[in-house]
């Protein structure tokens, strides 16, 4: 079975699909690796705003060019590529300004269109023309190229919030995006003064292995005050729960900067008392949503220039086991899980 199809909430079926026949202007990608992230788990569990069912999920992938449709130039069969999942309309103000992540007509592979939870993925002609297929430098493993999507999301946030080298940066959530955010700040010498608050002990250990100070969630507010009596200059909650926002708003100094990176889930509202802290403290609040095509290219350039991910553990799985990963909870899951299609092939060959 080479394709996993989500047919309804929590119902995943496996199909053996023929290699698709390409139309003019399209490109066929043979997926090598596809990341399974929190958004995929949410889509599986309860649906997602952009999700249209039935759907082949998977928006973090890289592979090789398997076939080139009529009229497409610039690609060679077998070349290694990464696919940016978002296809903007190309004509609205946001797309023309290079902010395609804001495009209301955006189509996303893995949500509106089939993505990387299948061995073959057809890139539609609008996507090919928009430039969502990017060649990957020979020295970058394709599983790191697949990770360029979350790297691009972190970069997009960091590019928008004006962090200075002397700034004290609080990150709430030591999952993959919290870790990537911290690593990028360190690598680009944006700031080294970083604290990561993370409730899960295993992830806290990982943050420490990466060279960052990490704190448990209990009493974090008081402990941060002890470490930084003047408060945090900037805070980025990298988790979808209210706790991240509460802690950030409380820890920020007057005139601090809040990066609103993770959308909040659940029905519990933040209190007015808390929201008013933005007002009383005169905070600068910067929203950042996903990543645009230019962030994707920037992420690949960062990897090309030596941004090192070898200290981030990756769990590689066969496609056949993807449902186990989709069932993992947001608090207790492997940091990075990646479908490796070589595993599948080996199994089929036996
Ligand atoms: Zn993702
Ligand atoms: Zn647009």
Can you describe this structure?
The protein has 350 residues and is an alpha/beta fold. It folds into two domains: 3-151 and 291-349, Alpha-Beta Complex (Quinone Oxidoreductase, Chain A, domain 1), CATH 3.90.180.10; 162-287, Rossmann fold (3-Layer(aba) Sandwich), CATH 3.40.50.720. Helix content is 32%, strand content 24%. The chain has 13 helices and 17 strands. The protein has helices at 38-46, 93-96, 125-130, 142-146, 148-160, 176-187, 201-209, 220-227, 242-251, 272-280, 293-304, 322-326, 341-349; strands at 3-8, 11-15, 27-36, 61-68, 80-83, 86-87, 107-108, 120-123, 133-135, 169-172, 194-197, 213-215, 232-237, 252-260, 284-287, 314-317, 336-340. Strands 3, 4, 5, 8, 9, 16 and 17 form a seven-stranded mixed sheet that branches. Helix 5 (148-160) crosses helix 6 (176-187) and helix 5 crosses helix 11. The radius of gyration is 20 Å and the shape is globular. It starts with a strand and ends with a helix. The mean pLDDT is 95. One zinc ion is lined by residues 88-89, 92, 94-95, 103, 105.
Mean pLDDT: 95
CATH architecture of the largest domain: Alpha-Beta Complex
Q: Write the CATH fold name of the largest domain.
A: Quinone Oxidoreductase, Chain A, domain 1
Named once each, the bound ligands are: zinc ion
């Amino acid at each position: 079975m080479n394709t996993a199809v989500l047919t309804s909430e929590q119902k995943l079926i496996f199909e053996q699909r023929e290699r698709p026949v390409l139309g003019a202007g399209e490109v066929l990608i043979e997926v090598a690796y596809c990341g399974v992230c929190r958004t995929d788990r949410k889509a599986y569990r309860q649906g997602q705003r952009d999700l249209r069912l039935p759907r082949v999920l998977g928006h973090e992938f890289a592979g090789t060019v398997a076939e080139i449709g009529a009229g497409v130039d610039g690609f060679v069969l077998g070349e290694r590529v990464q696919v940016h999942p978002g296809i903007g309309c190309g004509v609205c103000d946001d797309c023309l300004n290079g902010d395609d992540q804001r495009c209301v007509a955006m189509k996303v592979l893995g949500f509106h269109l089939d993505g990387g939870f299948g061995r073959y993925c057809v890139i539609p002609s609008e996507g090919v023309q928009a430039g969502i297929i990017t060649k990957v430098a020979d020295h970058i493993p394709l599983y790191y190229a697949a990770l360029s999507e979350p790297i691009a999301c972190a970069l997009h946030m960091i590019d928008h919030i004006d962090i200075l080298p002397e700034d004290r940066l609080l990150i709430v959530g030591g999952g993959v995006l919290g870790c990537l955010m911290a690593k990028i700040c360190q690598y680009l010498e944006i700031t080294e003064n970083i604290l990561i608050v993370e409730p899960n002990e295993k992830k806290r250990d990982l943050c420490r292995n990466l060279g960052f100070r990490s704190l448990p969630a209990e009493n974090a507010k008081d402990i941060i005050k002890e470490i930084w009596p003047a408060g945090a200059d900037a805070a980025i909650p990298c988790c979808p729960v209210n706790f991240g926002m509460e802690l950030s708003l409380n820890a920020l100094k007057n005139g601090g900067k809040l990066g609103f990176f993770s959308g909040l889930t659940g029905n519990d509202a933040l209190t007015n008392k808390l929201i008013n802290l933005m007002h009383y403290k005169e905070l600068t609040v910067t929203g950042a949503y996903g990543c645009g095509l230019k962030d994707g290219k920037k992420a690949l350039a960062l990897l090309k220039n030596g941004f090192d991910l070898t200290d981030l553990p990756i769990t590689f799985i066969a496609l056949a086991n993807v449902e186990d990963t989709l069932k993992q909870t947001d608090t207790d899951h492997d940091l990075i899980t990646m479908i490796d299609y070589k595993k599948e092939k080996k199994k089929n060959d036996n």
